[in-house]
Design goal:
The complex is a heterodimer of chains A (481) and B (253). With 481 residues, chain A is of the alpha/beta class. In chain A, 21% of the residues lie in helices and 35% in strands. Chain A has ten helices and 23 strands. In chain A, helix 2 runs antiparallel to helix 7 (179-187) and helix 5 packs across helix 6. The two termini of chain A are 14 Å apart. With 253 residues, chain B is an alpha/beta fold. Helices cover 37% and strands 28% of the residues of chain B. Chain B has helices spanning 40-48, 72-77, 95-109, 117-128, 135-139, 148-162, 178-191, 206-210, 231-239, 242-245, and strands at 2-11, 14-24, 29-33, 53-62, 65-66, 80-83, 90-94, 141-142, 166-170, 197-202, 215-220, 223-228. In chain B, the strands form three sheets. A six-stranded mixed beta sheet of chain B has the order 6-9-10-3-11-12, sandwiched between helices. In chain B, strands 2-1-4-5 form a four-stranded antiparallel beta sheet. In chain B, helix 6 runs parallel beside helix 7 (178-191). The A-B interface holds A 1-4, 6-7, 424, 427-430, 432-441, 443, 447-448, 451-452, 454 and B 48-51, 53-55, 68-69, 71-73, 75-77, 81-82, 84, 87-94, 97-98, 101-102, 105-106, 109, 141, 158, 162.
């Protein structure tokens, strides 16, 4: 009988449909990292002296730092001299319009479902497309510009709005923050820059799509979003990479600044190449993301759906400095095959009446290891701080693992902090129950998983919630016999 | 409709069914009775294709097809329904959503258009009165926090929605008080139809007061040892299973 051989542990190969490589003529510098390389990157981008100095300061500090080892992931040592720190598709000339984007690059984004022609884009979504080390196109700039919104690549922002970049760069994640943030500060090549002026509600979703294409290349981008008083912006990032046997490093930094009564929603759909079914290859996703609710009544929401990468190491956090400010973190992290994730958040309550909510959903399948690590800190002046944390783990099969490390550091007696955690398993009996009602195994798993994740999915911008759900079902494909 | 011949089934390394023969025609209600461990539930689960029950011999023809060749979900879509003795809880999945997925899986298989949310709610409304299904049972997660009676009612409610050709009720009466039992029986009786067969697996005669079978079979030691009309159930009630068990060795599973 065919059903008797079925077990939940059975793993099939899954397809990573973004694993193709685009043959595009690139300008790539030799492997290795040195002060000269930092200078070279800065020179290629025609940067002002202050930015070069900033990079060099970070580089020199990085040399003295040690790679962190406390996270609950295992990998072979990274050889930082074996990475290419800058690779860009060769430009024939300066781009004046989207039509001038290299056809190969444009075709790549088309294939990824991110057409760069404005008329073809999802209505209401503006895109900055980053290909290896550089931004290749930003759509809807004029429309956004008409209400004073700045949405452009980081390099352009350095040229066109140096005063803003200089004021905010490193203000939330200083170059001294950690090993990977220091590395990023030294060699970052591009990224997105957003400024929403006072009182403006951004009329469309902003989005950056990151693509690693070149071999042996690391991607080090920086995103900086500033929401001025009373403004609102919803921003989404997505990412993919070709399938390769070698691991590739992605070490990004994202900084968010919300002034009085401003709201920033930052959503991530992370689908870097996760490695093959034997754990070969895949992206090391070592990312530092932090936002500061600098002003009264400001709000920052992080929503992340992490399905890709061989290793994910990130803790998007909020510094709740302004009184009555709100920080939120909604996360779905899946690990299948040999993927590892150590992810969570930091909520730092400094102002009075600050509130934070953490909802973390970890799904482990195959040999995947999924760790939630979260810090809730309430400073001594943060009267009436409130936190609610919920960490749920779902296990599929019995070779995977789920781990939860909540850290609480409370220095004010008026604080109220709640933590709830649960672990459940998709059982064979649940699958059989669904199948007895005519529902296929695959649909049953999808139904159970999306039921498990719905509190997070409803925080995603509507256009992407469906995508995220599909992505999740692809990433767990074959995890149940 | 259903032709079981010399069916042998193993579970957890033990031979439970040792050659069961059963013939069920459309429109009939058969009761399978027997002492604990006689293999009643094993028969029900093997018919549904539960992965822990391995068929080691015999054949099962369902509407002329080899039922054992089909995966559990294919069997369900072909019209084989089992009401679970222990309905499974599925956290996070809304019951109404689950029912809709099941109904639409069936409809798709039958070549009917899938129901949208509005049409589905109408269907629910029609069928829920009979079993006294209230709104909260639809909005909660599947079987989660349901009382024993609610779980069993939910099973029969699913049967009413899915309209199977062959329904196997596995100890649907266990854990029910008399009111809940009557309610469930009312639901099952409403489903009796000339083109539908129902197999009621039960330990007690009590359920058969309300769901009156056409045939009663006694399963003991992994075989059907006696068959008869509805009066056989009454006789069993009076005399106990030991009356029938002489010669058949008891099975401890």
């Amino acid at each position: 009988m065919s059903t008797s051989t079925e077990t939940i542990e059975q793993l099939a190969t899954r397809e990573y449909k973004y694993g193709f490589y685009t043959d595009v003529e690139s300008e790539t510098i030799p492997k290795g990292l040195s002060e000269d390389v930092v200078r070279l990157i800065s020179a290629k981008k025609d940067e002002p002296e202050w930015l070069l100095e900033w990079r060099l300061k970070a580089y020199r500090l990085w040399l003295t730092m040690k790679e962190p080892t406390w996270q609950n992931v295992k990998y072979d040592p990274i050889n930082y001299q074996d990475i290419v720190y800058y690779s860009a598709p060769k430009k024939k000339k300066v781009l004046n319009s989207l039509d001038e984007v290299d056809p190969e690059v444009r075709a790549t984004f088309d294939k990824l479902g991110i057409p760069l022609e404005e008329q073809k884009l999802l209505s209401g979504v503006a895109v900055d497309a980053v290909f290896d080390s550089v931004s290749v196109a930003t759509t809807f700039r004029e429309k956004l510009g008409s209400v004073g919104i700045i949405f452009m690549s980081f390099s352009e922002a350095v040229r066109e709005h140096p005063e803003l970049v200089r004021k905010y760069l490193g203000s939330v994640v200083p170059h001294t923050d950690n090993f990977f943030a220091a590395l990023n500060s030294a060699v970052f090549s591009d990224g997105s820059f957003v400024y929403i002026p006072k009182g403006v509600r951004c009329p469309m979703e902003l989005s950056t799509y990151f693509r690693i294409n070149a071999k042996d290349t690391g991607q080090f981008e920086r995103t900086l979003i500033i929401a001025d008083e009373g403004s609102y912006v919803s921003y989404l990032e997505g990412c993919t990479a070709p399938m390769r046997d070698e691991n590739q490093l992605h070490a990004a930094v994202v900084e968010l600044v919300a002034h009085d009564d401003a709201t920033i929603k930052y959503s991530t759909i992370q689908n870097w190449y996760p490695g093959d079914k034997d754990g070969k290859g895949g992206i090391y996703n070592f990312v530092t993301k932090r936002g500061i609710c600098a002003g009264r009544g400001s709000k920052i929401t992080w929503t992340q759906v992490e399905t890709g990468s061989a290793i994910t190491w990130k803790y998007p956090g909020c510094i709740l400095q302004g009184d009555n400010s709100i920080g939120e973190f909604y996360s779905v992290a899946t690990t299948n095959n040999w993927q590892q994730a150590d992810t969570g958040t930091k909520m730092i309550h400094l102002g009075k009446n600050t509130r934070s909510t953490i909802v973390s959903k970890g799904i482990s399948a195959g040999h995947g290891q999924n760790t939630y690590r979260g810090l809730v800190r309430v400073g001594k002046n943060a009267r009436n701080a409130r936190n609610y944390s919920q960490c749920d783990s779902l296990l599929i099969g019995d070779k995977c693992g789920a781990h939860t490390f909540p850290y609480l550091d409370i220095k004010n007696t008026t604080a109220r902090v709640e933590h709830e955690a649960s672990t459940s398993k998709i059982g064979e009996d649940q699958i059989f129950y669904c199948r007895q009602r005519g529902i296929t195994t695959e649909d049953a798993v999808n139904m159970i998983v999306s039921g498990f994740c719905k509190e997070v999915f409803r925080e995603l911008p509507m256009e992407f919630a469906v995508e995220a759900q599909k992505l999740l079902s692809v990433s767990l494909e074959g995890s149940v016999g | 409709m259903l032709e079981i011949k010399n069916l042998q089934v193993r579970a957890e390394g033990k031979e439970i069914l040792k050659g069961v023969d059963l013939h069920v025609d459309a429109g009939e209600v058969h009761a399978i009775m027997g002492p604990n461990g006689s293999g009643k539930s094993t028969l029900a689960r093997a018919l549904a294709g539960h992965p822990h029950y391995e068929v080691t011999g015999g054949t099962v023809l369902y509407e002329g097809r080899d039922l054992l060749e089909l995966d559990p979900d294919e069997r369900a879509r072909e019209g084989v329904f089992m009401a679970f003795q222990y309905p499974v809880e599925i956290a996070g999945v809304n019951n109404a959503y689950f029912l809709k997925a099941a109904v639409n899986a069936m409809r798709k298989h039958r070549g009917q258009p899938e129901l949208d949310a509005m049409e589905f709610m109408q269907l629910i409304q029609q069928r829920s009165e009979l079993l006294d299904i209230d709104k909260s049972m639809l909005t909660r997660a599947v079987n989660e926090g349901f009382s024993g009676g609610e779980k069993k009612r939910n099973e029969i409610f699913q049967m009413a929605l899915l309209e199977p050709r062959l329904a196997v009720l596995d100890e649907t009466d266990s854990g029910l008080d008399i009111d809940a039992l009557k309610l469930v029986a009312r639901g099952v009786n409403a489903m009796r139809a000339p083109d539908r067969a129902i197999i009621v697996v039960t330990h007690y005669q009590r359920l058969l007061d309300y769901i009156v079978p056409d045939y009663v079979h006694v399963l003991s030691g992994g075989r059907i040892v006696k068959s008869g009309g509805k009066e056989l159930a009454l006789e069993l009630e009076k005399k106990g299973y030991s009356w029938i068990e002489t010669g058949a060795e008891p099975v401890s599973a």
